[in-house]
Amino acid sequence: MLVLSLVSALWLVAAVYFLGDISAHFNPATTLAFALRKDMDWAMAAAYWIVQFAAAICGSLLARGFFGPAGNLAATMPKPGLSWQAAGFEAIITFGLVLMVLNMANGPKLNGPFVGLAVGAYIMAWGTMGGPFDGASMNPARSFGPDVAIGSLSTWWVYLIGPVAGAVIAVGVAYVLRGPAKVGEAAAAEGTPLDRPT
Protein backbone atom coordinates (compact mmCIF):
# COMPACT_ATOMS: atom_id res chain seq x y z
CA MET A 1 0.00 0.00 0.00
CA LEU A 2 2.89 2.34 0.74
CA VAL A 3 4.33 1.95 -2.76
CA LEU A 4 0.95 2.54 -4.44
CA SER A 5 0.34 5.60 -2.27
CA LEU A 6 3.81 6.96 -3.01
CA VAL A 7 3.39 6.51 -6.76
CA SER A 8 -0.04 8.19 -6.68
CA ALA A 9 1.29 11.06 -4.59
CA LEU A 10 4.33 11.64 -6.81
CA TRP A 11 2.18 11.62 -9.95
CA LEU A 12 -0.19 14.15 -8.40
CA VAL A 13 2.64 16.42 -7.23
CA ALA A 14 4.10 16.44 -10.74
CA ALA A 15 0.70 17.08 -12.32
CA VAL A 16 -0.11 19.97 -9.98
CA TYR A 17 3.19 21.69 -10.71
CA PHE A 18 2.91 20.96 -14.42
CA LEU A 19 -0.67 22.20 -14.88
CA GLY A 20 -1.35 24.28 -11.79
CA ASP A 21 -1.06 27.61 -13.55
CA ILE A 22 -4.04 26.74 -15.73
CA SER A 23 -6.22 25.61 -12.84
CA ALA A 24 -5.52 21.93 -12.58
CA HIS A 25 -7.99 20.19 -10.35
CA PHE A 26 -8.26 16.53 -11.22
CA ASN A 27 -10.83 15.68 -8.57
CA PRO A 28 -14.58 16.17 -9.12
CA ALA A 29 -14.97 16.84 -5.39
CA THR A 30 -12.53 19.75 -5.65
CA THR A 31 -14.35 21.04 -8.72
CA LEU A 32 -17.62 20.86 -6.79
CA ALA A 33 -16.05 22.86 -3.97
CA PHE A 34 -14.87 25.60 -6.35
CA ALA A 35 -18.32 25.76 -7.97
CA LEU A 36 -20.09 25.94 -4.61
CA ARG A 37 -17.74 28.71 -3.52
CA LYS A 38 -18.59 30.52 -6.79
CA ASP A 39 -15.00 30.43 -7.98
CA MET A 40 -16.30 28.96 -11.26
CA ASP A 41 -19.70 28.72 -12.89
CA TRP A 42 -21.66 25.48 -13.11
CA ALA A 43 -21.22 25.13 -16.88
CA MET A 44 -17.44 25.15 -16.48
CA ALA A 45 -17.70 22.75 -13.55
CA ALA A 46 -19.73 20.38 -15.73
CA ALA A 47 -17.04 20.55 -18.42
CA TYR A 48 -14.42 19.68 -15.80
CA TRP A 49 -16.50 16.73 -14.57
CA ILE A 50 -16.92 15.35 -18.09
CA VAL A 51 -13.17 15.49 -18.69
CA GLN A 52 -12.31 14.09 -15.23
CA PHE A 53 -14.61 11.08 -15.55
CA ALA A 54 -13.77 10.46 -19.20
CA ALA A 55 -10.03 10.56 -18.44
CA ALA A 56 -10.48 8.13 -15.53
CA ILE A 57 -12.42 5.70 -17.72
CA CYS A 58 -9.98 5.94 -20.62
CA GLY A 59 -6.95 5.52 -18.36
CA SER A 60 -8.46 2.47 -16.67
CA LEU A 61 -9.49 0.87 -19.96
CA LEU A 62 -6.00 1.51 -21.31
CA ALA A 63 -4.49 -0.13 -18.20
CA ARG A 64 -6.80 -3.11 -18.66
CA GLY A 65 -5.75 -3.34 -22.30
CA PHE A 66 -2.08 -3.48 -21.30
CA PHE A 67 -2.20 -5.51 -18.11
CA GLY A 68 -5.59 -7.23 -18.01
CA PRO A 69 -7.69 -7.07 -14.85
CA ALA A 70 -4.70 -7.70 -12.57
CA GLY A 71 -5.19 -6.31 -9.07
CA ASN A 72 -8.69 -5.18 -10.05
CA LEU A 73 -6.94 -2.23 -11.73
CA ALA A 74 -6.42 -0.66 -8.29
CA ALA A 75 -10.18 -0.30 -7.83
CA THR A 76 -11.25 1.07 -4.47
CA MET A 77 -13.58 -1.22 -2.57
CA PRO A 78 -14.93 -1.08 0.98
CA LYS A 79 -14.61 -4.15 3.16
CA PRO A 80 -17.72 -6.36 3.02
CA GLY A 81 -20.48 -5.04 5.27
CA LEU A 82 -18.73 -1.74 5.92
CA SER A 83 -19.95 0.36 2.99
CA TRP A 84 -21.55 3.10 5.09
CA GLN A 85 -18.52 3.26 7.36
CA ALA A 86 -16.35 3.60 4.27
CA ALA A 87 -18.57 6.42 2.95
CA GLY A 88 -18.16 8.22 6.27
CA PHE A 89 -14.42 7.71 6.17
CA GLU A 90 -14.27 9.05 2.60
CA ALA A 91 -16.26 12.11 3.71
CA ILE A 92 -13.79 12.84 6.50
CA ILE A 93 -10.61 12.45 4.49
CA THR A 94 -12.03 14.31 1.48
CA PHE A 95 -13.11 17.10 3.81
CA GLY A 96 -9.49 17.49 4.93
CA LEU A 97 -8.14 17.39 1.38
CA VAL A 98 -10.60 19.94 -0.01
CA LEU A 99 -10.25 22.26 2.98
CA MET A 100 -6.48 22.20 2.59
CA VAL A 101 -6.72 22.96 -1.14
CA LEU A 102 -9.21 25.80 -0.62
CA ASN A 103 -7.03 27.39 2.03
CA MET A 104 -3.65 26.92 0.35
CA ALA A 105 -4.36 27.40 -3.33
CA ASN A 106 -4.03 30.75 -5.07
CA GLY A 107 -7.77 31.17 -5.39
CA PRO A 108 -8.88 28.09 -7.28
CA LYS A 109 -5.55 27.65 -9.04
CA LEU A 110 -3.28 24.97 -7.65
CA ASN A 111 -0.02 26.80 -8.26
CA GLY A 112 1.09 27.99 -4.83
CA PRO A 113 4.70 27.09 -4.05
CA PHE A 114 3.75 24.39 -1.53
CA VAL A 115 0.33 23.24 -2.73
CA GLY A 116 1.68 20.36 -4.79
CA LEU A 117 3.81 19.05 -1.94
CA ALA A 118 0.99 19.45 0.60
CA VAL A 119 -1.53 17.65 -1.62
CA GLY A 120 0.95 14.88 -2.38
CA ALA A 121 1.80 14.42 1.28
CA TYR A 122 -1.88 14.30 2.22
CA ILE A 123 -2.66 11.72 -0.47
CA MET A 124 0.33 9.60 0.52
CA ALA A 125 -0.47 9.71 4.23
CA TRP A 126 -4.14 8.78 3.89
CA GLY A 127 -3.48 6.35 1.05
CA THR A 128 -1.03 4.48 3.26
CA MET A 129 -3.16 4.60 6.40
CA GLY A 130 -6.66 4.32 4.94
CA GLY A 131 -5.91 2.33 1.82
CA PRO A 132 -6.25 -1.08 3.47
CA PHE A 133 -9.69 -0.09 4.78
CA ASP A 134 -11.40 1.21 1.64
CA GLY A 135 -8.76 2.41 -0.82
CA ALA A 136 -8.75 6.01 0.49
CA SER A 137 -9.97 7.38 -2.83
CA MET A 138 -11.09 10.94 -1.99
CA ASN A 139 -11.97 11.23 -5.69
CA PRO A 140 -15.17 9.95 -7.38
CA ALA A 141 -13.51 9.81 -10.81
CA ARG A 142 -10.50 7.88 -9.50
CA SER A 143 -12.89 5.19 -8.23
CA PHE A 144 -15.27 5.30 -11.19
CA GLY A 145 -12.67 4.58 -13.89
CA PRO A 146 -11.46 1.22 -12.52
CA ASP A 147 -15.02 0.20 -11.61
CA VAL A 148 -16.11 0.73 -15.22
CA ALA A 149 -13.06 -1.12 -16.54
CA ILE A 150 -13.69 -4.17 -14.34
CA GLY A 151 -17.43 -3.98 -14.93
CA SER A 152 -18.65 -3.51 -11.37
CA LEU A 153 -20.28 -0.32 -10.07
CA SER A 154 -21.88 -1.96 -7.03
CA THR A 155 -19.90 0.03 -4.45
CA TRP A 156 -19.11 3.18 -6.42
CA TRP A 157 -21.82 5.08 -4.53
CA VAL A 158 -19.51 4.99 -1.49
CA TYR A 159 -16.91 6.99 -3.41
CA LEU A 160 -19.48 9.45 -4.71
CA ILE A 161 -21.50 10.16 -1.55
CA GLY A 162 -18.50 10.32 0.78
CA PRO A 163 -16.33 12.77 -1.20
CA VAL A 164 -19.31 14.95 -2.17
CA ALA A 165 -20.37 15.27 1.48
CA GLY A 166 -16.79 16.01 2.53
CA ALA A 167 -16.39 18.68 -0.15
CA VAL A 168 -19.66 20.41 0.78
CA ILE A 169 -18.72 20.55 4.45
CA ALA A 170 -15.22 21.80 3.57
CA VAL A 171 -16.69 24.71 1.60
CA GLY A 172 -18.73 25.74 4.63
CA VAL A 173 -15.74 25.56 6.96
CA ALA A 174 -13.51 27.40 4.46
CA TYR A 175 -16.12 30.17 4.29
CA VAL A 176 -15.95 30.53 8.06
CA LEU A 177 -12.14 30.57 8.00
CA ARG A 178 -11.54 32.74 4.92
CA GLY A 179 -14.79 34.43 4.02
CA PRO A 180 -16.29 34.48 0.52
CA ALA A 181 -14.23 33.99 -2.62
CA LYS A 182 -12.32 37.06 -3.73
CA VAL A 183 -13.19 39.10 -6.81
CA GLY A 184 -11.53 37.70 -9.92
CA GLU A 185 -11.16 34.14 -8.65
CA ALA A 186 -14.01 32.91 -10.84
CA ALA A 187 -12.09 33.75 -14.00
CA ALA A 188 -8.97 32.09 -12.62
CA ALA A 189 -10.86 28.90 -11.78
CA GLU A 190 -11.78 28.45 -15.41
CA GLY A 191 -8.14 28.38 -16.42
CA THR A 192 -6.00 30.41 -18.75
CA PRO A 193 -7.21 30.66 -22.37
CA LEU A 194 -4.98 28.94 -24.89
CA ASP A 195 -4.72 32.15 -26.91
CA ARG A 196 -3.27 34.13 -24.02
CA PRO A 197 -0.69 36.74 -25.00
CA THR A 198 2.92 35.75 -24.41
Automatic annotation (TrEMBL):
The keyword Lipid biosynthesis does not apply. InterPro entries: Aquaporin-like, Aquaporin_transptr, MIP. It is found in: Membrane. It is a multi-pass membrane protein. Its main location: membrane. GO terms for molecular function: channel activity. Gene3D superfamilies: Glycerol uptake facilitator protein. GO terms for cellular component: membrane. Keywords: Membrane, Transmembrane, Transmembrane helix, Transport. The chain crosses the membrane at residues 42-63, 84-105, 156-177. The keyword Transmembrane applies. Belongs to the MIP/aquaporin (TC 1.A.8) family. This is Aquaporin family protein. It comes from Trebonia kvetii. The lineage of its organism: Bacteria, Bacillati, Actinomycetota, Actinomycetes, Streptosporangiales.
